[in-house]
Amino acid sequence: MVTLIPRSTLARAGRRHLRLVQIALTCLLALATALTPLRGAAQSNCSVIYNGGNGWIIDMCASDPGVARPMAIVVGGIARGNAAVVRIYHKSQVSPGSPQVAVIYASGFIRLKPNADPSPPIPFGSSFILGPAYWPNASTYYHSPQLRRLEIDTAWLPRAPLRMQASGTNGAFNIVYKLELPFPRDRQTRLHVTQTYTAAANIAIDSTRRAQRQGFKLVQISSMFINESGACGGGHTNCHDSNATRYIGPDLVRRQVAFSTLQRPGFIFNTPPPLGSTWLDALHTDNISWQGNTPNVRIALDALPLDHTLTPQGWIGATADPNDDNVGLWLHDDGAAAQSWSPGQVGQTSYWLLAQDNPPEPWADLGLRSGQTFLNFESSYNCFRVLPANLPVTGSVTPISGYTGRALRLNYNLGNTAGNWAQIRCNFDPPLDLSAYDHLRLDWRGHPVAANSVHIGLVNPGVSQEYIFASEYRHVTHHVWWGQLVIPYKSLLPWTGGTRFDPHRVSAFFVSVLLIKDPADGIEDDVGGAGNIAIDNLNVYNVKSRTVPAAFETVAPSPVAANAAASWLAAQQQSNGLLKSWKEEEVCLSHTYDQALALIVFAHRRMWVRANALVGALSRTQNTDGSWFQSHNCSTMDATTNNKWAGDIAWASYALSRYLALGGTHPQAATIRNRAADWLRRQINQANGCLFGDSTEGNIDAWWSLHSAGLAYAGAANQLKACLLRYYWDEELGRFKGGRNGWQPYLDNQTWGAAFLRAIGEQEKARRALSYARAVLRLPAQGGQLYGFDGQAGPWSVWNEGGGQYAAVGGAGANDLVLELLAQQRSDGAVPGSPDNFRGGGVWTTRWHGVAPTAWLYNALCDEPFPQGLPSRCS
Fold first, then answer.
1. In b/e form, how buried is each residue of 613-650, taking b as 16+ CB within 10 angstroms?
2. What is the pTM of this model?
3. Looking at residue 618, which CATH number applies to its domain?
């Protein structure tokens, strides 16, 4: 057995005692004794408990100076004895070393750092403390849990997460933690925690502590700040591991506090408002400290509670000893949890713990700051409100604290009359020359209850009038977290004269919020009323000149994850053969497109009983004309809509072709496939070879259906091929358009379109289409803990199905994107639709677990549904 000895810097992952800090009696506060990392103290009696030769190494140490009682360790179901500490190492992505990335202590502390391996190495700094912590009375404080048992499951490695389950107690609570450590990245290490706590006795939370927002703490950060440049005990300088904290409040304005400005001892936030976004940061902004460049850390909740009852608070003590963690930050539950508990009462929360080098700024972290930022509101600007004459609309423009620096906010009240609007406009004198670019991009966020529409526009000056060009985004202003909006110049349509936007002379930019009510358009009506929208970092960038990869990327296998995905899909199947599309949906709904995806997975896995049952269900639900309705009740098999969408029907037909090609033998499969193909063929307009109606995606889907249905349909497939290349391909930007004259980016068009282009031998066009999607539709989740693609601009929120589509077709960064999907996959195999809930702008993303996102993870891992003849990566 090889014992791993950490470098001297990493040996600081030991423990130290935090002295008992007595706060002034007039405040009736006390900070209880707690165990925190001991700088320079090494653990003893350490041994390796896992080394799979795959980049992951785990060891455990029987004792630690700051851990009083060890925990039982179980690896793969085998007991390995007791340990005070478990340490996890991972091979760096670009360096030869395998640094420590995570440490789990039996005292409930966790330390993380990014996977980079520079010299000198990155040290650990701030710690996380698992919760909950609570004050049952004014003098008793249960600060951190005692972990009794830690079970480690390495079966999903190396690509899927290291899965662990810890159990322990804290005071009168029994607690179980599901801990999932995804593949560590050099820029960021993250740990997902699902924390379930059960009261074992009657508990009353102290009312004074509750009022101070410290009565019931869900999760904590423990750090140290003495100074930023001076000396402290032990001959050290730059005595801090973090130097500031920040979060976004319910008014969506950033609250940031520099520790150097605080009176010590004392609370960090003065009467703090609750969280308005999902995260709380402990920042290390200057890259230096007494230990070195310790990480920035973040707590990112999976979701905010609907009643918005989580409030950040913290405490900073007075000390000159760098071995004292004198900074505490936490999320306080202001709701019923901070009142009382009865025996058997259960609570649960889930969150991510993140560690990275620089303060989290997800768009910059993902490289989404290219091009030219022409206005960021940090210095002078000429921006003002514009309101309609003779309409009952009010508004104002004010600077606010944005995600990082300063932003500009339009406050408005639109009333309730359709057509009302308010605008923030920024003038440029002299006009800007933005001709070196082809896409506009800006940071923005809306208001939680004001779901209205937006116009984004640029203005060209004229001799006698302005020429206004703009894009419309319906029902989007309830998007409450900071994101980016990407607008191709081509989508800026003329409003007042002129035929095409001229980027050489831009005299103004504007954002209008408006109230639209149109029952005929199928889009939810806007609500009007009072709200606000904030903007920042107005930017232009050049997508046309992007680098196009020279090859497609093949996704590395993850057999356990693929098998789990297929098994979960099987569990969604009802006795009549249909699958429930969304696990958490109250009604049992079965969408035709989802059935097609599941059939491909079942056929590829040779799950013939499942596949044949699904083919039978498709046969029974097919309409007499060969079509399918979009959705059915998966209990009764009755249609729940009379909509027939060519794309869904094409996918069902194509899935039947894949089923037959993979060896399916259901006697009705070919018959119903051909009936669907006949229906699609009848939808082709013989005048131009395109489907009736204007849909890029529909034509692509129909091509796949007819191309795979056999020689009898080859002529129709060739018609669609010519149509797509002539009417829907945008050669200038190297992508498929949203329609014949539609310029908004759509992901399906690029992913399934790239597969179409590969199939007809247009390899470079396929890579261009995928690179366009990567350039305009990537985005981070609200908390910065995950990233992915959205289905259309916006982008609004991460759409996991789309990420699987992109990876399945071999786009650049496919492997990295699959890691994001694997990071979200549950141990039962299910994948959520998104890390964030959002409905607007033509998209719907949900945290529910669904057939489509789970099937697309399988497809990405297993060379489906558009196989390239690669060696099998899934058994």
1. bbbbbbbebbeeebbbbbbbebeeeebbeeebbbbbbb
2. 0.95
3. 1.50.10.10
